[in-house]
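Notes from hallway chat w/ T.B., transcribed later so I don't forget. T.B. wanted the structure written out for a chain they're using in a teaching module, and asked if we could keep both sequence and structure tokens in one place. Agreed to drop them here.
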Amino acid sequence: MIKFGPAGAAAEFAEEGHKGTIEMPKWLKERGLDVFEYPFGRGVMIKEDTARAIGDEFEKEGIEVTAHAPYFINFATSEEDKARNNVRYIRETLNALRAFKGKRCVFHPGSPLKALRSDAMNVLVRRVSELVEELYSGGYSDMYLCAETMGKKAQLGDLDEVIRIVNVDKMIIPCVDFGHLNARDMGAIKTKEDYKAVLDRLIDGVGIEKVSNMHIHFSKIQYSSGGEVRHLTFEDDVYGPDFEPLMETLYEYRLSPVVICESAGTQARDAKLMKDYYRSLL
């Protein structure tokens, strides 16, 4: 079943006087949403008992929890100490996610830095393969790693690169950020046919099972010649992409992804707009 929800706390959550994530499940349920993505962008700094208490509340309200691993992970690093730290960051995220009773961990693939892009991708794939081996031996085989498409052209994570990463193992599924793809391709996603082209490439590259179960990030994003600049809200009428043709395509393809909205401050409201539009198609 397709699910919709925000990444992090929307501005109105705090404006209404709410202070902690433990209040989030009820707040989301009252708004008709299904999922929440907990951002560990600056590192995993939550105590286990706190995470378990939050997870209990999400379970009680029937809201799924996903997590975003720290943004500074770079699986293309040539430095062994940083590679070891990457594994630790993922394990820490998965431990918190397990306390939340969730299963999906989104991660940024990385950056080539000064290396050739092709060489950096070879390193990245090897590092991810090593990570998967450690996760299996550590008892994390029931979790999903969601490899995200990235918005800046200099970053690793275009659609074909994510397909290559996803094919490393069955526990890795695509996290397609359509705002990122649109930004790195200078506004190329406009119509339902554009969305279909992305999904068809994914299905051809990783198979219908992973695409049906995929993770989606969505927001409108300002871009420049280098790609992503900043996240916007659905009220923006200059930059894209528009969500309606995506919802129509997901319905037509009968997919069941988790759809996370990353609008700037209005992510809960905009997630509900997507859900309501999708439900109008049923």
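Follow-up for T.B.: The chain has a mean pLDDT of 97. Might be a good example for the class.
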